[in-house]
Here is the input.
Amino acid sequence: MSDKGLSDEAAAAACKDGDPVTKDFMMQQTMLRVKDPVKSLDFYTRILGMTLLQKFDFPSMRFSLFFLGFEDKKEIPTDVKEKTAWTFSRRATIELTHNWGSEADESQSYHNGNSDPRGFGHIGIAVPDVFEACKLFEEQGVTFVKKPDDGKMKGLAFIQDPDGYWIEILSPNNMVSITS
Here is the structure.
């Protein structure tokens, strides 16, 4: 690799066809640990417009899972078994994991991956209009990492959820000019 990063040719050469068995694989979820599920559920539903698809409690291990996605509430099955299979068939869901009691522990916080040591970076949410979405976020008191007019990459923003995880706010149509 050069100091310009991986060339298009090298990137293409590094990618191989998957085994035929992988043809029906999909990206189903990203898990984020959350300190306070009430704050996080409010943020992901009221601020971002996601829907709570299903909640699972594991009392013996003292944690809960909350699956959220951009789905129509009316389409969520009512039968528990059907609902579970449906939840795990949705694409690109968020799994919020709450370890019971963390909300009362003042010393508890989670690493967002954007400070050293770096690792996880962010999730991305596509919106029709980044500026309109950011106006709403500002009115709701959301913390911004980057506003759409800041920095070199104009037209996209980064906000933070209640645990400090970064969320990129982008408009698919604007990405052509940003990535060119």
Q: What stands out?
A: The chain has a mean pLDDT of 95. DSSP finds five helices and eight strands in the chain. Strands lie at 29-34, 51-58, 63-69, 93-99, 122-126, 143-146, 157-160, 166-170.
